[in-house]
């Protein structure tokens, strides 16, 4: 019997405009609370006591999540993507990958708005790693409130991350990198952190995503910054 | 398509797409004074005091923008009141914050960043806390109303905000069904999220030392335990109530709609009484001991609350009150849209594309 070659999705069928208003109600489906979320629809082998530990906020076409899936086979990880077609592409990509190799059963994507619904999906201190790669710069002043890194949202990131958990940020726009560094370092619950060579995620940051590969192709530069979630200095 | 028919179809689609319900933005408020000595009543721009015993008298006129102050826009009626030993703080719809002595002299003013939605005084440090339409909360020092500090931010409108009685937490409820409990004053540290409502949450009250009650657009009343951050009781109401008030020492909860008052037990949410109110209820405030004052569009009513029921005594209004100022303006508060037709078309096209591709592949196999 001839083996059927698995058909991988082609990006040209999933093109979508890069910007989507995160402040409007796009009619997402999301759980009322983390306890009511059924993760087994995304991960076929998910048991009730398992927990998702890594989240890629704005995972785009899924490059990082696919790479991390093989680097951390014992961890469950998810990408959040707000755009319909792009998240559909990642879904189809994982379906195809899993047919070839079941090891990809620990990674998946959810179409949702990370700015609004992180606490709906994750319990306090549940995540070990959070990824913010090549976030949309939203240069105009009137669009600053669409930015994924802001003083208000940092409190939510600190909430879903465990103490000692890490946030990985990358950008090819120096202004955005400086903005993220400033906000994270000024926030009492984060401090700048340099991981050692054993941190496989840090090594995988630049060359694995579609955005990252495009930056390399165009001879551009990427800046990375990693931050660790620390104990509240003001808490008794 | 043209003419009248087209308009009707579009209007119907629009109406169904956004199920709008209206929470009335009242241009009048009643607020119970912190020490139980009476109430402050705001009608339009005028602030009055109603003592426990004695006649109602005018305190001040608010909302007048001082010369040289910019950024105030909108109609100037009082939208929030807070009180403490040192004096009174008011916020107006035109974003003006003002602090007053009990005698009615203005001590300071400031302009809020965006239109305020709730005004509270923090028990721990005596600062005034303001939540706004942009989803942010700030605190200002009293009585000078300077030293503005950013406290926290939600992604959508903060519809109600309270400080817990021990001053340790700030609870903010937003339009995205979330109730966030953050430490105070280190509000960057979120203590927990109280998740359970399926529509916007527009009222939060503290019912006991560690318990909160909330109502929302899903017409549910929910009781929460602060320490475990879990729901302890829920009931499905039959309508959207505009206000929720707690009478802690009596273990009662009071819900008001424009025409009725309903009394419930705060322990098990059992329904005790519902009484009709003459006039349209605009605002309700309660004292610890079980007395409540209800402000309607044309009267002020005092109720004494007991397990047997609510007894009403109208209050004699002082001279100079202009009831015409109490126009209730409709403020649309959108429930989540019923469904986005946008991506259904995408999935339909995708399904067709896959069908065509499989058909072509099969045709090739047949030929070869």
Set down the secondary structure blueprint.
The complex is a heterodimer of chains A (236) and B (368).
Chain A (H helix, E strand, L loop, with lengths): L51 E6 L5 H9 L4 E6 L2 H17 L6 E5 L2 H8 L5 E7 L17 H10 E11 L2 H13 L3 E3 L7 H5 L5 H8 L5 E7 L7
Parallel strand pairs in A: 1-2, 1-4, 2-3, 4-5
Antiparallel strand pairs in A: 5-7, 6-7
Chain B lengths: L2 H15 L2 E6 L2 E5 L5 E6 L2 E6 L5 E5 L16 E7 L2 E6 L3 E5 L5 E6 L4 E6 L6 E5 L3 E5 L8 E5 L4 E6 L5 E6 L3 E6 L6 E6 L5 E6 L4 E6 L3 E6 L4 E7 L6 E5 L4 E5 L3 E6 L5 E6 L4 E6 L4 E6 L3 E7 L2 E6 L14 E6 L7 H26 L1
Antiparallel strand pairs in B: 1-30, 2-3, 3-4, 4-5, 6-7, 7-8, 8-9, 10-11, 11-12, 12-13, 14-15, 15-16, 16-17, 18-19, 19-20, 20-21, 22-23, 23-24, 24-25, 26-27, 27-28, 28-29
Mean model confidence by pLDDT of chain A: 89
Distance between the amino and carboxyl termini of chain A: 68 Å
* Strand order within the widest beta sheet of chain A: 3-2-1-4-5-7-6
Amino- and carboxy-terminal Cα gap of chain B: 50 Å
Structural description of this entry:
- The complex is a heterodimer of chains A (236) and B (368).
- Chain A has 236 residues and is an alpha/beta fold.
- Chain A has helices at residues 63-71, 84-100, 114-121, 151-160, 174-186, 200-204, 210-217; strands spanning 52-57, 76-81, 107-111, 127-133, 161-171, 190-192, 223-229.
- Chain A is built from seven helices and seven strands, in the order βαβαβαβαβαβααβ.
- In chain A, strand 1, helix 1 and strand 2 form a beta-alpha-beta unit.
- The relative contact order of chain A is 0.15.
- The model of chain A has no long low-confidence stretch (mean pLDDT 89).
- With 368 residues, chain B is mainly β.
- In chain B, the strands form eight sheets. In chain B, strands 2-3-4-5 form a four-stranded antiparallel sheet, with no helix packed on it.
- In chain B, a hairpin with a 6-residue loop joins strand 10 and strand 11 (128-132).
- The longest helix of chain B is centred in the C-terminal third of the chain and has 26 residues, at 342-367.
- The radius of gyration of chain B is 24 Å and the shape is globular.
- Mean pLDDT of chain B is 85; it is low at 1-24.
- At the A-B interface, helix 2, helix 3 and helix 4 of A face strand 13, strand 16, strand 17 and helix 2 of B.
